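My current task is to audit a protein record that another person submitted. My question to you is simply how this chain folds and whether the tokens agree. This is what I was given:
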Amino acid sequence: MNVIDVDDVSKSYGDVQALDGLSLSVEQGATLGVFGTNGAGKTTLFKLLVGLNKPDAGSVSVAGADPTDGTTVRERVRYLPEHAGFPPSLTGREILSFHARMRSVPREDRAHHVERILHTVGLADAADRRVGGYSNGMNRRLGLGTALIGEPAVLILDEPTAGLDPDGIRAFHEVVESLAAETDVTIVFSSHALGEIQRLCSEAVIIADGQVATAGPVEELRRAAADEVTVSLSLASEAVASDVAGMLRDHEGASSVSRAGVDLTVTATPTDAYDLLTAVGEGYDIDRFEVREPGLEAAFHEAVGAEGGGDPGSDRTAAAAAVDTATEDSGGEPA
């Protein structure tokens, strides 16, 4: 069952076409990664999903209703912006309790509900500390906790790890992975890091110039975008590595071979990579090897790179990026 349906939606601001016939469907329980260059239309799409904007054409349905129905949005859909501030003098527990009251969690269930969410977002040990002493990562997870109050059907996370240090990113990732594995909430996750989407999301959509450039299961997109893998090898010595590099360059299955000291990097199809490793292993001792399949970067470049979609230097992208920034700052309409 689809929990999000965006059907042939267009949205413009003056002469700028932010979305141009975009269609998208998301099943209940999926974790969808949304990626696009600046000005691609991501922010405009998110504003439509939470009911802060209306499309000029087409239709949007989230959790079975028009997002502009404010009651439905508040009850079923939650949006976590990149930056969410909290009164520094309050504790994490007090902030979550306040949100529980605002979202009409029954009084008799409130303490248990808040405690469960504190554990979910990894803040149980810091629940009674003032949030003014929280790290950026802890504040971001507290924001996620407020969004989870009342068990929403859809959770929209807009660049949630931007600006966090590696420990903060890791902790946030662990919470998202736990939610995806243990709940039926649909998560829409926007990120500028394709590796982050590849790790966390079951589905991905790449937006360029206000349209869906490509969409589908992450693994399918990744594998369909490139038919070669990268093999890294470490040999016993530079002399051995030089001999092996020469052998591999003569092998018709190797698309490219490069050497740096004792390390070799080879690209080949998956079948040829197996043959190459077998050939090397029969004549030489391999200290270490790694086979890396293509990532979502290949899918992105295949979808938009050849046509120049999402080129930061294009007039359309620069204008749309300005519109998206204005929309973020003004709460739904360009400045």
Remarks:
- The longest helix spans residues 166-182.
- Residues 306-323, 325-335 have pLDDT under 50 and may be disordered.
